Amino acid sequence: MITVRWPDQHPDDVDAIVESPKGGLVWYHNRDTGLMHLDRDDRGLFADKMNVDGAMISNPINQETVTIRALLSGEYVVNLLHYQANYDEPLKVDVKVEKLNPEVELIYYGSHELRGVGDEKTAVRFSVDSKKSISNVNQIPKRLLTKALGRNSLIENKSD
Does the structural domain 2-149 have CATH classification 2.40.330? Predict the structure, then answer.
């Protein structure tokens, strides 16, 4: 499971972009690909208030979660995109990657700074072997947005 968080009640929109070993991308334009799913596209303050049984409820938490239902062998890449910025100051974004089965194992936890609209950063890359062991955890940059926007179709190959 991949969790991306930025300060609660902050108006900026941050997006997670995750690439699977087969090249499939999960992001706000493609919430499902193969075994990965974007649970929520959090857009900062936008749509943080909802009517529940006649009462307005606020959800101040800024968080995106990507679920990987089964790990494939190969490399995963987790990028951050500062989609909308309302201030000039850098925005601190925390990223946590956990392997949940057979028990919870922390693969990565780190903080990153995004510096305005369009800033894309590689938060973490990691490899999975045939025994589902994790290795080669690094932050070597890889642009994923260019790849996503360069496709004629944003619908990914559903076989990965």
Answer: no
